[in-house]
Design a protein that fits this description.
The chain has 277 residues and is of the alpha/beta class. The chain has one domain: 3-Layer(aba) Sandwich (UDP-N-acetylmuramoyl-L-alanine:D-glutamate ligase). Helix content is 35%, strand content 21%. It contains nine helices and nine strands. It has a nine-stranded mixed β-sheet, with helices on both faces. Helix 1 crosses helix 7 and helix 3 runs parallel beside helix 4. The radius of gyration is 17 Å and the shape is globular. It is an enzyme of class 2 (transferase). Pfam families: Phos_pyr_kin. Keywords: Kinase, Transferase. Pathway: Cofactor biosynthesis; thiamine diphosphate biosynthesis.
């Protein structure tokens, strides 16, 4: 077995919105990071009234308070990796970008959250340009699903598996020179969930058999948070993605062990603990 790069427990922060049901957002992020061996911190960027049935309200957090949370945290805690989730508006996006440019954390995972599982919109329409121009170039890994990728590129979503490589390569034009794109193919038809990881020099594909369950609320949040937790503990980005993919597959496989709500329930963030006892 390869020796991991860092022996100490990494400190990882999620900058995201609050989902009171705990299936998505910052609560899900903290659970996933903890399950993957990191110490999880959180900066609240938005509040939602949300359950497994949908999003019923959004209350933005001011950019000034997001900045204060970040400054206080970074001045005290050595942050190894940052995960960015729901940022409601352009002003908050600009604030987060300024902090990242100033603090320069080693790893940044950007999950471009735009729409909830319930189809409710979480990103203001006028904030897409700021997300594209300010945050994508700062990410170590950006983790869009196919609908998010289409929106970032300003094109119609394709449901053809053979178009994934073209879409991922187009996204590379929006990110930094050393960045990676993890394009998630779970929305495609078929029995396999196929994800494509690209940099300007490497291509990797990660596949897992799809699991028949409606309880997939917060899968994007959970995968990106696991990746942020695992990057400081891995020897390469592809290795961290492989480990994060295995974690989210297990979390979905055991989602039906939980009984949470009557809509799209959460994945089981602590499936490894429960099934190793």
């Amino acid at each position: 077995m390869e020796e991991r790069k860092e022996a100490r427990i990494p400190n990882v922060v999620s900058i995201a919105g609050v989902d009171p049901s705990g299936g998505a957002g910052i609560f899900a992020d903290i659970k996933a990071m903890s399950a993957c061996g990191a110490y999880a911190c959180g900066v609240v960027a938005a509040l939602t009234a949300q359950s497994t049935r949908g999003v019923f309200g959004v209350l933005p957090v001011s950019a000034a308070f997001v900045r204060q949370q970040l400054d206080v945290l970074f001045e005290d805690v050595a942050i190894d990796a940052v995960k960015i989730g729901m940022l409601n508006d352009a002003e908050v996006i600009e604030t987060v970008a300024q902090v990242l440019e100033a603090r320069r954390p080693r790893f940044v995972v950007l999950d471009p959250v735009m729409v909830a599982k319930s189809k409710d919109r979480l990103l203001a329409e006028d904030a897409l340009g700021a997300l594209r121009s300010r945050l994508l170039p700062l990410a170590t890994v950006v983790t869009p699903n196919l609908p998010e990728a289409a929106e970032l590129l300003g094109v119609q979503e394709s449901d053809a598996p053979e178009d994934m490589a073209y879409t991922a390569k187009a996204l590379l034009d929006l990110v930094g020179e050393k960045s990676w794109v993890l394009l998630k193919g779970g929305h495609l038809a078929g029995d396999t969930a196929s994800d494509l990881l690209l940099s300007r020099e490497e291509t990797h594909r990660f596949e897992a058999k799809k699991i028949a369950t409606k309880n997939t609320h917060g899968t994007g949040c959970t995968l990106s948070s696991a990746l942020a937790a695992l990057l400081p503990q891995s020897n390469s980005v592809p290795e961290a993605v492989e480990r994060a993919k295995a974690y989210i597959t297990g979390a979905i496989r055991h989602a039906d062990d939980l009984q949470v709500g009557s809509g799209h329930g959460p994945t089981h963030h602590f499936w490894q603990i429960n099934h190793n006892m």
